[in-house]
Amino acid sequence: MFYKLFTVLFTAVVVSAAGSYKFERIDRDNVALLIVDHQVGLLNVVRDYSSGDFYRNVLLHASLGKLFNLPVVLTTSAETGPNGPLPKDILDMYPNATIIKRPGEINAWDNADFRAAVAATGKKQVILGGITTDVCTMFVALSMREAGYTVFANADASGALDIRAADNANARMRDAGVIVLPRLSVLSDLVRDWRNAPGPGSILRWFPEFRGIIGLHAGAIREGQLLPNETEIA
User: Which terms are listed as keywords in the entry (predicted)?
Assistant: First the structure.
């Protein structure tokens, strides 16, 4: 009797939990892109990615604003010191953007100009990337969750001093309701349908893995021919 009652109650709880889940997706009409402390000096402290891979991720993150016509908020921390400015590649993407140059606040959300710039976008979702994951990204993400925003943290565009620091920060953010995603998930949710992708060539340039597959496919179509001993396995 007890076993049957437990089974019924457990099933009811599982069904209720499953029914209450809501898959919140990135809304291109209601999301802003935040570029937080992707500064040339801070790029050198990232150790959970190789320098080349991380820089590519940072540039992909920044390019999302151009590709999808998203409002962009850029901020730096004490950039006249060793943190340095934003990379020229990012500045060239947004030559007319106003950069919130924080004089000392570690948490960008503590800066009134940054909060005002985010509010001025009129968006209630943000895609966030920063250095470091456990400070610049996490502090802003938790603060914005408290303020009522939906936060998508681009894990691949956030770097830490080591993997353990990144893992701990990502776990804490998830506990607070931050949606932590890799770059391909962020991009795919913005695109939704490859038939309507904005400039697919400009998107796929950030993914050499897919460029290789496409190159093989194109080469096979244009010039491909099976050898006699390959027909049995093709």
Answer: Hydrolase
